[in-house]
Amino acid sequence: MLRADGVTVAYDRHRVLDRVAIAVPPGVVTGLAGPSGCGKSSLARVLALLLRPSAGRVSVDGTEVRRWRHRAAPALRTTVALIFQQPRLAVDPRFTLLDIVAEPLRVARLPLDRAERLAEEMGLTPDLLVRRPHEVSDGQLQRACVARALTLRPRYVICDEMTTMLDASTQALLVGRLEEYRRESGAGVLAISHDTELLDRWCGPDSTVHRLGPSEDLPGE
Amino acid sequence: MATGTRARPQGQARWRARDRRRGPARSRRLATATLVVLGLAVLLVPLVARLDQSQVDLHSASLPPGLAHPFGTDEMGRDVLLRVVYGLRVSLLVGLVAAAVSATIGTLVGLAAGTLGGMADRVLMRVVDGFNSVPHLLFGIFIVALFSPGATAVVVSVGLTHWMTAARIVRSEVLTLRSRPFVDAAISAGSGRTRIVLRHFLPHLGPHIALTAVLMVPHAVWHETALSFLGLGLPPHLASLGNMINDGARSLLAGDWWPSLFPGLFLFLPTLAISSLAQHWRDRSDPRRRSELQL
């Protein structure tokens, strides 16, 4: 279980998350909805061990997280994969699509053939894989980002407004691929969106959809 | 009527835009041509020259520019043209090495400050402030005084007094890169700090570092010239632009202008050309600036 308890995140005097608790169980899709600026992305970064909260606890499968970002153990970091809202910002503009998908495998010193297979499953043809981000569409880039997120077979996948900028067919492809991965691996998925209809469709009637309220300014001194 | 009043500013704007485009293109071509000619002279003249630049001929001392000696001779009868070419060669070489040294030191300090952050960043940036607060030339003279005069002393002096600009530029770029989502994605993929620096930071910093180093070359040449002019740079027998301007200054009192004018001109021309090309490169490498130039 990926769990956050009493998580507070504040940027200067602006508190975006105030004692938030969320649990992402394995094998199911958990929803997280809320208006823009309510701290959905901050919570996603906290759960992906990329942002140290001002207060609160985060645990991954019972292991409490004490170090964040590159200081956290690589094995713990790769347990949770984050798919970003804007694929164009989430990839190194100098890399080819194949480099992007294969990066986690290179870091883990694993054979790179898995990257090509995953890219193929996402509909990325070999001629697309040699292109750089500025030569492909947002949808193609997001497909590469999803493939990258799944290369190391994470236990939890956080999708931060993953389909906001994409057309309906790409949305369906990405959600379908993630659902396939969830069923096959038993991974937990946290679907974050301001689009409650999408969350209702994706999560189904049995899953939990958490809702975050608007953020607030801390009282002045 | 309305169309006529609108057409005129459009036409003027078009001409102004054309002038803006042609002006830099002309100066760029001129700068490139200057560097090509000077580069060929520096490389080829020593190979084909039949005269020895250090050969003293007191019978031909202080001859004004003429057919036999286009730039005249100095008070020892040495050919000024030949010495200027040799001097430029030495000064440019020292300038290039010194710029590379200062860019390397600056890159390492900037990378460390930007990547480590926190206390390490604060301490390193205060060190940069400390180095910046001392006048460069004074500090350079102090460093040279620790060595025996020579090219190494000049390179160390320039390197240790000019790395701060590169450090500031690299640090600010690293701070920007650190907050980019693709770095988050790399961390999430299990990358450590070293890998992020080598695979993500350095390739992005490459053009900035190269540009800083290129802009440093003219500065380093001037620094070398200033040290040599003060008698603290290269040994007097070695032709460098600074040594020549220093020697020529004495002849000025006797009315001989050529031994100091030509080395000064050959100091001015390449530094201006390198600066012009480097600024053009900087404009082209910044997408926002590039789109502004196209307007």
Compact overview of the structure:
Chain A is of the alpha/beta class. Chain A is built from 8 helices and 10 strands. Chain B has a single domain, classed as MetI-like fold, CATH 1.10.3720.10.
Architecture blueprint of SSEs:
The complex is a heterodimer of chains A (221) and B (295).
Chain A: E1 2-11, E2 14-24, E3 29-33, H1 40-47, E4 55-60, E5 63-64, H2 74-77, E6 80-83, H3 97-107, H4 113-121, H5 126-129, H6 138-150, E7 156-160, H7 168-185, E8 188-193, H8 196-203, E9 209-211, E10 216-217
Parallel strand pairs in A: 3-8, 3-9, 6-7, 7-8
Antiparallel strand pairs in A: 1-2, 1-4, 2-10, 4-5
Helix pairs in contact in A: 3-4, 3-6, 4-6, 6-7
Chain B: H1 2-48, H2 80-116, H3 118-133, H4 136-146, H5 151-161, H6 163-178, H7 181-188, H8 193-229, H9 241-252, H10 258-285, H11 287-294
Helix pairs in contact in B: 1-2, 1-10, 2-3, 2-5, 2-6, 2-8, 2-9, 2-10, 4-5, 5-8, 6-8, 8-9, 8-10, 9-10
Task: Give the averaged pLDDT of chain B, no decimals.
Answer: 82
Q: What best-fitting shape of chain B do the alpha-carbon axes yield?
A: globular
Secondary-structure arrangement, i.e. CATH architecture of chain B? Orthogonal Bundle
- Which regions of chain A are unreliable across 5 or more consecutive residues at pLDDT < 50? none
Key traits:
heterodimer; A: 221 residues; alpha/beta; 5-stranded antiparallel sheet; 5-stranded parallel sheet; 8 helices; 34% helix; globular; B: 295 residues; mainly alpha; MetI-like fold; 11 helices; 78% helix; 0% strand; disordered N terminus
Description:
The complex is a heterodimer of chains A (221) and B (295). With 221 residues, chain A is an alpha/beta fold. In chain A, strands 5-4-1-2-10 form a 5-stranded antiparallel sheet, with helices on one face. In chain A, strand 1 and strand 2 form a beta hairpin. In chain A, helix 3 packs across helix 4 and helix 4 packs across helix 6. The longest helix of chain A has 18 residues. Chain B has one domain: Orthogonal Bundle (MetI-like fold). Chain B is mainly α and 295 residues long. Chain B starts with a helix and ends with a helix. Chain B is globular and about 75 Å long. The N terminus of chain B is likely disordered. Chains A and B meet through helix 2, strand 6 and helix 3 of A and helix 7 and helix 8 of B.
